[in-house]
Amino acid sequence: xxxxxxxxxxxxxxxxxxxxxxxxxxxxxxxxxxxxxxxxxxxxxxxxxxxxxxxxxxxxxxxxxxxxxxxxxxxxxxxxxxxxxxxxxxxxxxxxxxxxxxxxxxxxxxxxxxxxxxxxxxxxxxxxxxxxxxxxxxxxx
Length: 141
What we know:
The chain is mainly alpha-helical. Helices cover 83% and strands 0% of the residues.
């Protein structure tokens, strides 16, 4: 995967808000296959004709699939938590910028020209906040 592919994937994730679970890593799939293979090896060491060996031998695929599902859910939970914290931080910064510009607008020593410029900045901040919210709504489709 090239650097431009990675950048495109990051842009796509930022614009849509979706988690791309089809990445090149395949972490949970590989983890499940490795776990299943390890269980079969353990079953062979115990003896495939003993009841613990037979249990492990026949349950290995089911355990591997369950393990893969758990890893994928954990990955998605971590990603959504990270995304939520980034969104909270961005909203906190937008609110701080909004409050700062409003405080400057209330300054009695500011000229009318400066206040007009500040109102334009304030409108830009509000427009950016509205676009962020619309982006989240569009990502829900």
